[in-house]
Amino acid sequence: MQLPLPSPNQHYCNISALEAGLINLPDVMFINNADPTHVTTAPSLSFLLIHSANYQKFIFDLGIRQDWENYTPAVVRWIKKTYKIDVKQDVAQSLQKGGTSPADITTVCLSHCHWDHVGDTSPFTNSVFVLGGDSQQLFNPGYPAEANSSFSSDLLPLGRTNFLSVADWQPIGPFPRALDFYGDGSLYIIDAPGHLPGHINLLARTSPDGAWIYLAGDSAHHWNLLNGASDIAVGHPGHLHSCAHVNKEQAEEHIARIKELLNMPRVRVMLAHDEPWFRENHGGAQFWPGKIQSL
Fold first, then answer.
1. Which family is this protein grouped under (predicted)?
2. What does the pLDDT look like over 226-250, one tens digit per residue?
3. Distance from the CA of 128 to the CA of which of 31, 51, 158, 287 falls in 20 to 30 A?
4. 13-281 domain in CATH 3.60.15.10?
5. Which DSSP helix (H) or strand (E) runs through 259?
6. ∠ Cα 253 219 144 (to 5°)
7. What gap in Å lies between CA 111 and CA 192, rounded to an integer?
């Protein structure tokens, strides 16, 4: 159950965090033994990956859009009722702060299509968008044809969106389905079922000699779910489903696989809403134009 060893002249990815807004997450919505009064102000992180050989720029998630009133009416109502957000800097601004234009991004990969991950896609005029195949069903028909849909039918650019099928993906480490994105072992897209149809994670090499980062998206919203201190909360009225995931059992199985990574050497796991990491590193050298250091 190990990850692939590096090959001679192994390619890898340099990874930088991007600011993409803050969101208040009531702990009671995500972990079963939470203080019911505690709210975690968490980031909605985005990540810039740059390939070590071809220098292509790949973004994972777009966070929260600054003009959040332009989400679908259903999302706007949800934000006003359930969450407080603060977007001082969106992904496009975070890139520009580091000297990069959204037009320079080759690929935008969305872990899933919840509003706090899709941001504003319009600045990425040259990017191919990559999503898990089952995401496509969320836009059938989508807003405005379905007035109460959280998924806008104009979110993804026509002719530049690739919905990935997992039919022919191969296992890697603890994960049964993975796609070698560049074909050189530098970046794998991981099927991550449970949270939302089409949910995917990334597993990226970050050095030529065996270091990795696993970007877990919304596989878990709180580190207690990975360190064993808590289980997934159920029954909160703020959820559209019984919990934060459309399929709790699949989410728990996937969390168990991520826990296996934590026992492997030189593997860093990061959550989309990784508040402890953000609190320690916000504004520092691991944000673009800096990079996250390998273990």
1. Belongs to the metallo-beta-lactamase superfamily.
2. 999 999 999 988 887 889 999 999 9
3. 287
4. yes
5. helix 248-262
6. 120
7. 9
User: Cβ atoms within 10 A of the Cβ of 26, count?
Assistant: 18
- DSSP assignment, residue 192? -
pLDDT of res. 200: 98
Q: Are strands 187-191 and 200-205 parallel, antiparallel or unpaired?
A: antiparallel
Has residue 1 got a pLDDT over 80? no
Place of tokens 């990425």: 124
Are the CB atoms for 272 and 3 separated by under 8 Å? Answer: no
Cis before 141? omega within 30: yes
What is the rounded distance in angstroms from the CA atom of residue 269 to the CA atom of residue 39?
A: 23
Angle CA 163–169–174, to nearest 5:
120
What mean pLDDT is predicted for residues 29-58? 97
User: Cα 204 to chain center, whole Å?
Assistant: 13
Coil, strand or helix at 244: coil
Q: Which amino acid is at 136?
A: Q
* Mean pLDDT, the chain, whole residue set: 97
* Domain spans of the chain, in order of start: 13-281
Helix, strand, or coil here: 185?
coil
Token code pair at residue 238:
């703020």
